[in-house]
Amino acid sequence: MTTKPPKIPEKISDTLRSTAWFGSKDRNGFMHRSWMKNQGTPQRMFDGRPVIGICNTWSELTPCNAHFRQIAEAVKRGVLEAGGFPVEFPVMSLGETLLRPTAMLFRNLVSMDVEESIRANPIDGVVLLCGCDKTAPALVMGAASCDIPTIVVSGGPMLNGKFRGQDIGSGTNLFSMSEDVRAGRMSVDDFVGAESCMSRSAGHCMTMGTASTMASIIEALGLSLPHNAAIPAVDARRYELAQNSGREIVGMVHNGMRMSQLVDRRSFENAVKVNAAIGGSTNAVIHMLAIAGRMDISLSLDDFDEWGRNVPLLVDLMPSGRFLMEDFYYAGGLPAVMREMGRMILRDAKTVNGQTIGENIANAECWNREVIRPLDSPVQEAAGISVLRGNLAPNGAIVKSSAASENLLKHRGKAVVFDGLEDLRARIDDPELDVDANSILVMRNVGLKGFPGMPEVGNMPLPTKLLEQGVRDMVRISDARMSGTAYGTVILHVSPEAAVGGPLALVKDGDMIEIDVKARRIDLDVSEDILADRQADLPKQLPHSTGGYEQLFINHVLQPEKGADFDFLVGRRGAKVSQNAH
Ligand code: FES
Ligand code: MG
Predict the structure, then answer these.
(1) Which family does it belong to (predicted)?
(2) How many angstroms does the Cα of residue 204 sit away from the middle of ligand 1?
(3) For the chain, what are the domain ranges?
């Protein structure tokens, strides 16, 4: 892992943002420097060198990011090494496992925190420390709206889970083992015993869940140094990469390399294709749409379908396959995948180290053909996320076919409808529930406004009585999301969601639903007249909220095909602040 040393000009620039704070010898200059000096900062740090913000999502309540103080220290070493002035600042941290009602409710809030923290402070370039699922999109969204030089350093995945001689993956094996307990194949004692075996080192989920997916997308977008996505959190090379990134950002500031000069529509095309090749998370669709929206880059659901349609699944990682992120890194990581993708990748897209993607991956080697397959023998042909439309989802719904059952991708079945998560929990195991293996489970009011926050509940548990019969998968449809670590024939992000009167609200038990992923269709087989009558009977008010941030969210969140951003946050606002109160 080598990077070119950043170019540092002879004369230090006086046009940096930070000069407006630190560059004068008047009352304000005194104020801005003097208080900083209470940290032991020498005067020479204010000589016009780039001030590099290190945006830290460290928190002990975000276990995936709990090692970020050490990562930040490594970044600082790199910034100092290249003649910059590192300043670390916190933003709200989002841990996927603990936050209620769902971490997604707070992604946009954190993006605001990031954007305003950057703009309001004397920061010339920013290093985003990303890890757990929502921390990556939130930080990139906020930085994108400011558009200053930006580089991402991920915390890295945990080491492989190890349980009784077998590798177990974050989330994926939690779901499979909990189904085993419900089906009587695993004892509760063994289940609890597996907890410490699954999460046994620092780092985020080591399946190709949303955290690993977003780290890969960020690398594919050119926003991080090569290999950022896969180096395990505890591998010394993670810290080497963090230090190198600290050096790189100083060079980016000197070269005036803002995010919008690096990332364009081609970068997104690469990232969408990479998401298909790695079997990435469905959540990446929403997050990429939101990031593109912040950058004023046009990106739509149809782009995902079109660009990803013929991309084969090359990476054999859970939940779509067998291996884990540690194996992925040792096999060559994302550069090896992108090199294998050959002409699919737009090689002239730019990256943070001043080289193109093509240059970065030119010599990438693959060391394990089981983990990263050759193009002519993929895990699966055509693994992209499919966008379905029809009278049940006029604005789209998505399905990750690499995590679905082949035989269910074209299916007609009777709807079994749940009105929300509580309803599902109350009735899914009712022996009287009128359901069989051909039924289609439908859940609604779990969307952005309906829940609110669009939780990861789309992979509904199967009825125990069917599990006991050996059923392993069923078609499931909802306006929810699903964890990137989950699997099954799960149709997600149905839009418009039920809570705003989308057709999902009109489905009744026993209605026939037809899905045909190849034809990209999802239809409710009920006449238009009957649907119009049902629509007229729907209540017209938005979900109840207790006020506060939740109210802001319900009032302003856009539907999933628009990235679930707030309407007033879309766009690039830049980093200029014309007023100063002092
Ligand atoms: Fe943090 Fe999975 S829970 S990345
Ligand atoms: Mg997740």
Answers:
(1) Belongs to the IlvD/Edd family.
(2) 5
(3) 385-539
